[in-house]
Design brief:
Elements (H helix, E strand, L loop, with lengths): L11 H4 L13 E14 L6 E14 L2 E11 L5 E12 L6 E14 L5 E13 L3 E14 L2 E15 L6 E12 L9 E14 L2 E12 L7 E11 L4 E10 L10 E11 L23 E6 L2 E7 L6 E5 L7 E2 L1 E2 L4 E6 L4 E9 L4 E2 L5 E4 L5 E7 L1
Antiparallel strand pairs: 1-2, 1-14, 2-3, 3-4, 4-5, 5-6, 6-7, 7-8, 8-9, 9-10, 10-11, 11-12, 12-13, 13-14, 15-16, 16-20, 17-18, 17-21, 19-20, 21-22, 21-24, 23-24
Length: about 375
């Protein structure tokens, strides 16, 4: 019987990179979804196959940790099947830092008709450098894969970065390089080594989410060198809980994990939690000390900028942002109830949060709020 394979479209390297801002809220944020639809799949040398697909994902994030789980399965009318699942857990350095380490552990399983399942684990250590509109990371990792009771080691090295193309984070470019090496799989197949170069563009605004990417693999086998792949994904949110999802592309074989290449075209209905919308202002609830919502203003004073927040009932106010290297700065109270601090802030777009009376880091209500990649929000400040 011909084997049936379904792969999750996406890039682990880019999905694991850290974002630019720091988590502003000291609470957990979670979201999840379930997709049900159909797909047209084709492997090299095999005819196209229509399948029924189901997939689910869940994310739980705090300022210093994250948990992500996803799974996908497919079945044909003649009872062939395939399925895979991934569980990833990460811990991070405290959020108020420009350089931020990350430790990640991943476990995965892959199974298909008439073949033994494969199980793998991997540990990664990364260092992230974040800025107001971009960032970069570098990391190394090791793990093991088993199939038919035989274990073999896997080593990886990664580096990459991203750049937001607009002030609100609606468009983003990201790229990564990765090197993978695994031990012997059989007596006749030696070590497997290859390098991947990957690039992605993502767009998130309103009810539409788009992503498109591609890459090239450089393999040790001459006939496999320079393999290219590409994928695209479009999600249209019809309501806050329902969306249409279209995906198409080609995924290269993951030789180290025994997963062959596949071409795919799918359409599904997504039911779940809609991610935060980039670029959408969100009203901040008035706190006990916020008599006017804590509006933030910036004015020029010689070579410095004076940051002012009107909170006459507060006992203490702090501000931090990319212009402070995400180090909290204590503000001074004036006789008229304003809180001020003089800082060197260059013209341009900046991201910041404030803290009142030692509480949670929040966004001033007169600033546009955007989501960072750690489950929180930061405010957008434009300095002329």
């Amino acid at each position: 019987m011909r084997r049936l394979v379904l792969l999750v479209a996406g890039c682990l390297l880019l999905g694991s990179r850290a974002g630019s801002g720091q988590t502003a809220r000291g609470v957990a944020v979670s979201d999840g979804s379930f997709d049900l639809g159909g797909a047209l799949l084709q492997q090299p040398g095999l005819t196209a196959t229509n399948v029924l697909t189901g997939a689910g994902q869940f994310r739980l994030a705090t300022p210093a940790s994250a948990l992500f789980a996803n799974g996908v399965g497919a079945r044909t009318s003649d009872d062939r099947y395939t399925g895979q699942g991934v569980l990833t857990a990460s811990i991070y350095a405290p959020p108020a830092q420009r350089y931020r380490w990350e430790i990640t552990a991943t476990g995965s399983a892959f199974g298909l008709s008439n073949a033994a399942p494969a199980f793998a684990w991997q540990g990664l250590v990364r260092e992230h450098l974040t800025g107001s509109l971009g960032g970069a990371f570098v990391g190394i990792g090791t793990g093991e894969l088993t199939r038919d009771g035989v274990w073999r080691g896997i080593q990886v090295a990664q580096t990459g970065g991203y750049l937001r193309l607009d002030d609100l984070g609606r468009d983003e470019l990201s790229a990564a390089l990765a090197y993978t090496s695994s031990g012997r799989t059989t007596d006749t197949l030696g070590n497997v080594r290859y390098a991947d170069a990957v690039g992605y563009w993502t767009h998130r605004a309103g009810i539409l989410e788009l992503s498109a990417g591609g890459g090239v693999r450089f393999d040790q086998e001459p006939h496999l060198a320079g393999q290219a792949w590409a994928s695209t994904n479009a999600t249209l949110w019809m309501t806050e809980r329902t969306a249409l999802v279209f995906t198409a592309g080609r995924a290269l074989a993951d030789i180290a994990r025994g997963i062959p290449s596949v071409r795919y075209l799918s359409l599904s209905v997504r039911i779940g939690t809609k991610p935060g919308k980039a670029g959408t202002p969100i009203r901040v609830r008035r706190g006990a000390t916020e008599d006017d919502g804590g509006r933030l203003e910036v004015r020029e004073d010689d070579s410095l900028r004076v940051v002012t927040i009107h909170l006459p009932l507060a006992a203490g106010v702090e501000v931090m942002g990319d212009f402070t290297d995400w180090a909290p700065m204590v503000m001074t109270k004036t006789p008229n109830g304003d809180w001020q601090v003089e800082l060197a802030i260059a013209p341009g777009t900046h991201r910041l949060v404030i803290r009142v009376d030692g509480g949670a880091w929040t966004v001033p209500p007169n600033l546009t709020r955007v989501h960072d990649d750690y489950g929180g929000e930061v405010g957008i400040l434009i300095v002329p």
